[in-house]
Write a structure and sequence with these properties.
about 120 residues; 4 helices; about 85% helix
């Protein structure tokens, strides 16, 4: 699975979270070297953990969406193949369309009424 093919909004969100992670790691490094309190470092570790969890969730969610999309595309292709591969089904659809149009003509429906009736 290619997780690097994202929608634009997902890519923006992922970029923002990655920037937060990078900035947090850099800030933590400077804080540790500068002698910051462990409470402050702990707070930044929580931010880092939340950002990492956000990245993991986003990648998992995108992977699931891609799998679902692939399944829908496969189902659609199978449905099209089944519909085009069965001449009896195509003939039945054609006959049904003719019967519907004949009934619309018998009822003397306008073009607008026919559109609504087909819905």
């Amino acid at each position: 699975m290619d997780i690097f093919v994202f929608r634009a909004n997902h890519l923006v969100l992922l970029s923002i979270v990655l920037i937060i992670v990078g900035a947090t790691i850099g800030d933590m490094w400077l804080d540790v070297r500068g002698g910051a309190s462990w409470r402050h470092i702990g707070q930044e570790m929580l931010i880092l953990a939340a950002s990492a969890a956000g990245i993991a969730y986003l990648i998992h969610h995108l992977g699931r969406q891609r799998r679902e999309l692939a399944q829908v595309e496969a189902d659609l292709a199978a449905s099209k193949a089944q519909a085009t591969g069965n001449p009896a089904l195509l003939d039945a659809r054609h006959q049904m369309g003719k019967a519907i149009q004949a009934q619309f003509e018998a009822w003397e429906l306008t073009a607008s009424e026919r559109e609504v009736a087909l819905l």
